[in-house]
């Protein structure tokens, strides 16, 4: 993880020297607040990694790294309003600390600031291709968020729809960050596409592991009680797969557990988990995760870049998927 | 107004042939809803006019016209949430028709769609300069909105601050639309700057006339009862000027009228209007409007472009300022 940590430090130093400024202060204070809450800075690391696969010094990718992080934080600010979330990384969310109107407007200006960062990229020759990919990714992230909201009230969500939603909501920005870094590095369009697919598929594997850990993770390692998704009837891969394959009594029992308002939360979680095990869901989910992981790695293998740095990217992806980083 | 109407028709035909499409439908339906509510399409007309000052066929500026209109409608969607406004152009606002979360997300994707439109501009040679101005204008519109929100709770707003707020909130996008049209037309940087200043100053004159009409307009012509701003203690040019120049008893009387919760709305409006007249506010406001109007026209005079089309732009600005269009 040494290379990743190095990239994260490069990004933090760059950001610390460039707080967003302007008048009125009330517009920019929430922007710097959310940007300074920290986090793993995965998207900047991906942008720098995408560039660093092809060049020793990744610093030309710093404005791109900043753009993708500002964009990511814009989505957090607006998503937190939509979810009425009080906390983000253990601190008050922007709308909770300020107010909803300020948070809407802070998010808006962050989206504009992301484009401002993109226009600072040098050599400018690569800006049109990067902007094209950025627009596509940005639009897809909104599409993923809308799909996620639609799913809450839909009873007929299919597994392909679910996989597409997590791809749009989580993977495309990670994939795009890596791919835009590679575009800026002058990588071939084949390699850019391979890195994009690698990021997408690794991101889906990552999200599937999230679903698995919510039901079957070690609470000490995951850091929260198991079954949060089950308690909320969240349409995860596990639940959708169970609804797809359960027949007869198991199907009836599962639907009853989902819709019985009288049942205690702990009992519901225990019984749904038992049903998942009975239906073989853990190994089906692990198999699906493995399938996307393998797809990701075969694309990465084919990229024509420095083997050591490709290896660093592979190890990062493995660690992220297994939640060991 | 023939030329303007021609530009508006060009824009409507272009838009009608290009509804925004994509999945999920729930994301794009509100976008097309707000875009189809109509309006004067002033910003597209400005973009086409800025181009048309220098070329006979303004159609190369249509993607730009579309970008500024989508951006403008994005601000309407989010501003309506912030103002909790139920109606827009006599129809339900997006958040009222759908819900707030859908409206936040629809606004977000519209901002991205505006950038997508900008990337379609040809020749691409002009895209960097246009994007640079678009980013600046977009950021300033957010700054103006934040200033406006800040003013509600501030007791020390100055007239220069007020003028800056209306410039940012209203003028810069009109000015920028015109100037970006001129950039695309290959106008000299001097002429681009002149057109930008023309748009800014004409926009301020337009907004000052808005303030004047609210208190002194003919209700039949304006289409609403006079004194709406006064009833809400809105910090308009009229009120800020009155607070600046009133002394002794008039100052005391004005502050009493603003803060007396017992006073009836009609009486408050009548007495504030009497005070405005007593203090000479109508002629001071008219003088200020005239000052910005003259600044605008002197910049337009200096632009080196077809005199007939410059004249059409001048007449449009005059008509807008006087609310005769």
Instruction: Determine the fraction of residues in helical runs of chain A and give it as a percent range.
Output: over 70%
| Residue windows where pLDDT falls under 50 for at least 5 positions of chain A | none
Strand content of chain A: under 5%
Largest interface: A-B, 36 and 36 residues
Largest sheet of chain A: 2 strands, antiparallel
Amino- and carboxy-terminal Cα gap of chain A: 9 Å
Give the averaged pLDDT of chain A, no decimals: 96
CA-based shape of chain A: globular
Strand order of the largest sheet of chain A: 1-2
Radius of gyration of chain A equals: 21 Å
Number of strands of chain A: 2
Which structural class should the secondary elements of chain A be placed in? Answer: mainly alpha
Oligomer: homodimer
Question: What is the overall number of helices of chain A?
Answer: 16
**String of helices and strands of chain A:** HHHHEEHHHHHHHHHHHH
What would the keywords be for this entry?
325 residues, homodimer, mainly alpha, two-stranded antiparallel ribbon
Task: Provide an overview of this structure.
The structure is a homodimer of 325-residue chains. The first copy, chain A, has 325 residues and is an all-alpha fold. The first copy, chain A, has helices at 2-16, 25-35, 42-52, 62-82, 94-97, 100-119, 127-152, 159-184, 189-216, 219-222, 228-231, 237-245, 248-259, 265-278, 281-302, 307-321; strands spanning 87-88, 91-92. Chain A has a two-stranded antiparallel sheet with strand order 1-2. In chain A, helix 2 packs across helix 6 and helix 4 (62-82) runs antiparallel to helix 8 (159-184). The longest helix of chain A is centred in the middle third of the chain and has 28 residues, at 189-216. Chain A is globular and about 65 Å long. Chain A binds chain B through residues 22-24, 26-27, 78, 81-82, 101-102, 104-105, 107-109, 111-113, 115-116, 119, 124, 127-128, 131-132, 135, 138-139, 142-143, 145-147, 149-150, and chain B through 22-24, 26-27, 78, 81-82, 101-102, 104-105, 107-109, 111-113, 115-116, 119, 124, 127-128, 131-132, 135, 138-139, 142-143, 145-147, 149-150.
């Amino acid at each position: 993880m040494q290379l990743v940590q190095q990239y994260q430090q490069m990004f933090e130093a760059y950001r610390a020297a460039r707080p967003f400024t302007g008048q009125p202060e009330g517009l920019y204070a929430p922007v710097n607040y959310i940007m300074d809450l920290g986090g793993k800075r995965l998207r900047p690391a991906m942008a720098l990694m995408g560039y660093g696969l092809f060049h020793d010094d990744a610093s030309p990718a710093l404005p791109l790294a900043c753009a993708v992080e500002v964009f990511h934080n814009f989505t957090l600010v607006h998503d937190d309003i939509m979810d009425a979330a009080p906390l983000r990384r253990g601190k008050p969310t922007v709308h909770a600390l300020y107010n909803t109107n300020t948070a809407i407007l802070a998010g808006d200006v962050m989206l504009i600031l992301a484009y401002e960062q993109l226009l600072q990229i040098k050599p400018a020759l690569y800006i049109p291709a990067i902007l094209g990919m950025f627009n596509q990714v940005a639009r897809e992230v909104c599409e993923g968020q809308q799909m996620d909201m639609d799913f809450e009230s839909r009873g007929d969500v299919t597994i392909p729809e679910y996989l597409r939603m997590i791809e749009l909501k989580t993977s495309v920005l990670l994939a795009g960050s890596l791919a835009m870094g590679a575009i800026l590095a002058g990588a071939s369009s084949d390699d850019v596409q391979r890195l994009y697919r690698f990021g997408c598929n690794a991101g889906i594997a990552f999200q599937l592991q999230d679903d698995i850990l919510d039901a079957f993770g070690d609470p000490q390692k995951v850091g929260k009680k198991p079954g949060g998704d089950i308690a909320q009837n969240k349409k995860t891969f596990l639940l959708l797969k169970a609804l797809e394959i359960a027949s007869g009594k198991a199907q009836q029992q599962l639907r009853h557990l989902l819709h019985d308002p009288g049942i205690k939360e702990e009992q519901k979680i225990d019984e749904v988990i038992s049903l998942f095990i009975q239906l073989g869901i853990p190994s089906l989910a692990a198999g699906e995760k493995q399938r996307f992981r393998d797809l990701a790695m075969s694309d990465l293998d084919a990229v024509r870049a420095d083997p050591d740095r490709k290896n660093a990217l592979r190890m990062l992806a493995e660690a992220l998927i297994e939640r060991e980083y």
